[in-house]
Amino acid sequence: MLSFSKIGLILSLMLLPAICFASISDELQSAAEKGQVAFLLVTDMTVSDIDQARSIILGAMRQVENSIMIEMDRTDVINSSLVAKYRLSSAPLPLILVFTSNGVLVGGNPASKLNTQLLIDMIPSPKETEIREALQSGQAVLVTASRRGMESKSEVFSYCASAS
To answer: pTM to 2 decimals?
Structure first.
């Protein structure tokens, strides 16, 4: 007869692969739910020098509050939906992608073309993030610009509101 401790150990060993192999999509979704900027490092088994890419991301993480690094092997079958969605199958590696705090992909480049500051510069302002999210979800976006004291400001806003 199995004791409770042995049953617990067996269940733990059975659940461990599910925990270890949580998908990158889940990690990106979790980061978005936590309001974290996500730096996704895309690699595969042929990439030998990913230390430079990691150091670029770690440098950015020191300057960007509430950010996270996620590594993804594009040849892993569990990541095939992301590879297809973002067309990563033939992208040069290592590749760094930037996701905003609400989970919107805003940029990416091969690590060889990046430094820490260029990576940080890819992160949009909160208002630009809001616009990009609407665009990626297929919504129409009307952007207006104004200055203090602009007399027709309320008129412009009412025109935009009537168009939506």
So the answer is: 0.76
